[in-house]
């Protein structure tokens, strides 16, 4: 399975610009890239931009799936620019490139 890691700030102010960078150790071999993010974490953010832009975004009850195709699927990283909306401890599960998901914790303060 491909490896990936997430770069993020553990502490961030509510409404402040936040950048999550999902780094992929290798581009997917099947020509498509899928990133999953827990729905509760996604809902706690005001997403400003995702680079590269996903071809589709599927919002489910438990998670959100960003799908990339073509040249975007060959990217070595995906950047999510957002502003946290909810104050307090936020926990996210993020999965990418067929690798086991990782869990991250972020604290949003006033």
Task: List the keywords.
single chain, 110 residues, mainly beta, six-stranded mixed β-sheet, four-stranded antiparallel β-sheet, 5% helix, globular
Describe this structure in words.
The chain is 5% helix and 58% strand. It has 110 residues and is mainly beta. It has a 6-stranded mixed beta sheet with strand order 2-10-9-4-7-6. The longest helix has 5 residues, at 39-43.
Helices and strands in order:
Blueprint: E1 4-7, E2 11-13, E3 18-24, E4 32-38, H1 39-43, E5 45-51, E6 56-59, E7 63-69, E8 77-84, E9 88-96, E10 102-109
Parallel strand pairs: 2-10
Antiparallel strand pairs: 1-3, 3-8, 4-7, 4-9, 5-8, 6-7, 9-10
In short:
The protein has 110 residues and is mainly β. 5% of the residues lie in helices and 58% in strands. It starts with a strand and ends with a strand.
Uncertain residue ranges: none
Radius of gyration, rounded? 13 Å
Overall body shape:
globular
Biggest beta sheet summary: 6 strands, mixed
- Rounded mean pLDDT is 91
Terminal CA distance? 39 Å
What structural category do the secondary elements indicate? mainly beta
Number of helices: 1
Strand arrangement within the widest β-sheet reads 2-10-9-4-7-6
Element order: H for helix, E for strand: EEEEHEEEEEE
Helix content: under 10%
- The fraction of residues in strands falls at over 45%
| Number of E-type strands | 10
